[in-house]
Design brief:
This protein is mainly beta and about 120 residues long. The chain is built from no helices and eleven strands. Helix content is about 0%, strand content about 50%. It is globular and about 40 Å long. It starts with a strand and ends with a strand. The model has no long low-confidence stretch (mean pLDDT about 95).
Length: about 120
């Protein structure tokens, strides 16, 4: 399995969680990495992206200033630090690797934020 997420769970509104995604089987340092999320009844949406060298990050407006994406190419891992969580952040979070002509998805990890 190329991507395996972990770190999801149940947290109260205002709390924090850190998601991790471990990569294997491909040249991680050559891939841009992203986190997506999918809530029940909604389309999967892009949350954050980080370039292959870690130098560029982008965030959805709904999570900017609350979430931070980072990566460690030596450990072949990408993380998403989520602070000030809101009930609207409740979703299944997916890791994606994008190599242009190749891409991979993880199986997802559930995040539930209670009010």
């Amino acid at each position: 399995v190329p991507l395996v997420e972990s770190g999801g769970g149940l947290v109260q509104s205002g709390g924090s969680l850190r998601l991790s995604c471990a990569a294997s089987g491909f040249t991680f340092r050559s891939f841009d990495m992203s986190w997506y999320r999918e809530a029940p009844g909604k389309w999967r949406e892009l949350v954050a992206t980080i370039s292959s060298d870690g130098g560029t990050t982008n965030y959805a407006a709904s999570v900017k200033d609350r979430f931070t994406i980072s990566r460690d190419n030596a450990k072949k891992a990408v993380s998403l630090q989520m602070n000030s969580l809101k009930p609207d952040d409740t979703a299944k979070y997916y890791c994606r690797a994008d190599g242009g002509s190749l891409f991979y998805w993880g199986q997802g990890t559930q995040v539930t934020v209670s009010s």
